Amino acid sequence: MADINILENVPLAGYSTFRCGGPAKYFAEPATGDEVAGLFRLAGEMNWDVFVLGNGSNCLISDEGFDGLIIRIGRNMSELKSEELEDGRVKITAGAGLPFARFGNYCTELSLTGAEFACGIPGSCGGAVFMNAGAYGGETKDFVTKVTYWDGESIRDIEGSECGFGYRTSLFEKLNSEGKTAVILGFEAVLSKGNKDEITALVDDLRARRTASQPLDVPSAGSTFKRPEGYFAAKLIEDAGLKGFALDDSGAQVSPKHAGFVVNNGGTARASDVMRLIDYVVEKVFENSGVRLEKEVRLVGNFGG
Ligand SMILES: Cc1cc2nc3c(=O)[nH]c(=O)nc-3n(C[C@H](O)[C@H](O)[C@H](O)COP(=O)(O)OP(=O)(O)OC[C@H]3O[C@@H](n4cnc5c(N)ncnc54)[C@H](O)[C@@H]3O)c2cc1C
Predict the structure, then answer these.
(1) For residue 138, which of 41, 117, 162, 244 is within the disulfide window of CB 3.0 to 4.6 Å?
(2) What residue's CA is closest to ligand 1, atom 11?
């Protein structure tokens, strides 16, 4: 802990795929669970609020930034190794800061099947566990067998079956929403071997489908809203006449390519512009369909109520 560098007044827009938001008052990138624990202790002593950031691909950061300590779990915690099990399956150990797509690609390199969907998700492994990230019928919960996390007092290991995974949620997300500490440090996954050509073909197919249907060249945080039970958010937004809609020329727009994505064209919108558009979409969709969309995107910092 002694040498961990705590930076001050660090601009966060570059740490969010939305490419907007103000600075962090304090910012650190720990390399170990002990450093995470040390940062929490320090924050407690200094009375700083703490936010744990992965790759920022599901976060909208306030224009005021974050008036506390951002603990970024990134490349300093990106261990990746594999071990063949007696039954022929393979156990992968991944640090929370490892890009989830790198984990997916590594599985492909080892001819392991089940993580093909991960190759197209731009978050970290920790963020994928926290959100139970998923796509095209696969979810993180499908292969995670153990998660190591800091619970505010100690570093604990729990089984995948104890992680409370659900649609875009996990035990860690629930603890977080109750104001409790749960920092994912890494996971273990067990996957079976498959046919490398078939795995590679599936990865390519999913990538092509994503590129064809999603605005991957424009800043966003992916799907802005959760899928409401029995509906598709993008369809509800389209039905409300909002595909391609913008309130102004700030850059915040409902993507003309995929109505489920609010995008930041040219990276010129402020977080408040994005937020105003999100709120507008929620209201118009509710008026049109009676369904109230819930944000999948997580808010960081102050958005005024
Ligand atoms: C173009 C695009 C496409 C996307 N497609 C998909 C998709 O197909 N499926 C899907 O599920 N998501 C998708 N996403 C959303 C996003 O990539 C996932 O939600 C991802 O899991 C978020 O990971 P992250 O590391 O970026 O998390 P962040 O955005 O940094 O954080 C998200 C939440 O997780 C918490 N968190 C992150 N790391 C940790 C940690 N180590 N310990 C504790 N809490 C942590 C944060 O506090 C925050 O509350 C997409 C995003 C983009 C931009």
Answers:
(1) 117
(2) 133
Atom of ligand 1 nearest to the CA of 221: 53
13-22: average pLDDT: 98
Among 75, 102, 130, the domain boundary falls at 75
Q: Are 89 and 110 members of one domain?
A: yes
Report how far ligand 1's centroid is from the alpha carbon of 284 (Å): 26
Does the annotation count 296 as an active-site position? yes
What are the Cα distances from residue 215, in Å, to 117, 164, 211, 249?
17, 31, 7, 18
Asked if 158 and 165 count as a contact pair (C-beta separation under 8 A), the reply is no
Specify the number of domains making up the chain: 3
Number of H helices, E strands in the chain: 7, 16
Beta strand residue intervals within 140-290, DSSP E: 144-150, 155-159, 183-193, 252-254, 262-264
CA 74 to ligand 1 center in whole angstroms = 12
Give residue 250's domain range.
233-300
Half-sphere exposure of 31 (CA within 13 A, CB side): 6
What angle, 0 to 180 degrees and rounded to 10, lies between the N-to-C axes of helices 196-213 and 100-109?
A: 150
d(CA 74, CA 92): 18
* pLDDT band at residue 305 using 50, 70 and 90 as cut-offs: low
Examine the domain organization and report whether 183 and 92 are in the same domain: yes
